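Need a sequence for this fold. Nothing fancy.
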């Protein structure tokens, strides 16, 4: 997994019906876009250092675009 500052991260709930989290990557601390990422979670003032697992997806923004390529 790799990301850039400004990409969005989506983490599925660990259980059926569990909470889904969406956030914006504000800092990439690994080399060449690798984790960990500092994430600002949507709808909160919470910043968290995230090591994404298999339930996480990063939405990359295409050049000049405003929507993620995938979620």
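Here you go.
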């Amino acid at each position: 997994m790799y990301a850039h500052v400004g990409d969005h991260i989506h983490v599925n709930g660990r259980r059926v019906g569990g909470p889904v989290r969406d956030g914006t990557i504000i800092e990439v601390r690994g080399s060449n876009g690798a984790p960990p990422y500092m994430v600002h979670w949507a709808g909160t003032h919470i910043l968290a250092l995230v090591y994404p697992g298999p339930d996480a997806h990063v939405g990359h923004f295409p050049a000049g675009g405003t929507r993620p390529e995938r979620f």
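For context: The chain has no helices and five strands.
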